[in-house]
Amino acid sequence: MICVSIAFMASHLNLWKRRLGRVPEWVWEQTELETLVLADNELSEISDRIGRLKNLRMLDLGHNKLAHIPDALAGLDALTDFLYLHDNQLTSLPPSLACLTKLRYLNISENAFEELPESISSMTGLMELRASDNRLTSLPDSFACLARLRELHLRDNRLASLPESIGTLQELRQIDLRGNPLTHLPATIAALPRLEKLDLRWANLPSPTWLTNLEARGCLVYQ
Q1: Closest CA to 204 of 188, 182, 186, 219
Q2: In this structure, are residues 97 and 73 in contact, taking their beta carbons and an 8 Å threshold?
Q3: Strands 82-84 and 58-60
Q4: Which side of the chain, N or C, has fewer Cβ within a 10 Å radius?
Q5: Which CATH superfamily is domain 1-135 in?
Q6: How far apart are CA 119 and CA 110, in angstroms?
């Protein structure tokens, strides 16, 4: 219990890699928590009681065995900093998560998504999205709603192209498309005013002529 007591300091609870198997019920009683780390615990489910943790700003559920995320997460109005769902067995997210409009960082990498959940397009506060190592074949046009997005990480998916609407994401600084079977990229990317890095390695993409314009204005292009 000494370690647990230390973890409670400053409203933070870190139960990383404790081999829990399931979350102890007492965790859901800690309604003052601002950060909760449950990563790497062989968890296969999360109780709806997580909705009681109204003060959570950061939640780490990475490196588990989760196939579903409870709708109750949508009620975490204070969840603004980080939501880690990477390295699980997720194929979808609840539509209700569209309510998380203040969330700035979302990591859904290393799952089994074949399409980007529509709920993500409504998370208009996102500044960084990590969706690498999935099975994505396309991005929805509604993706253009993420007007504050600065970093987009899509390494090792099945993307052949990106929607033209990506050119409306004026805050984008980094796009990582490594390891995708790209056949085409929209020229609208060349008009992104703040783009600093475009990574196309291991994508075998025929080099578009507009890439030279990006490089000429200082954008790092990796091929």
Answers
A1: 182
A2: yes
A3: parallel
A4: N
A5: Ribonuclease Inhibitor (3.80.10.10)
A6: 18
Specify the range with the lowest mean pLDDT, choosing from 18-32, 34-48, 74-88, 202-216.
202-216
State the residue for tokens 């799952």: 111
pLDDT, tens digit, 9 for 90 and up, residues 190-205: 999 999 999 999 998 8
The yes or no reply on domain 146-223 and CATH 3.80.10.10 is yes
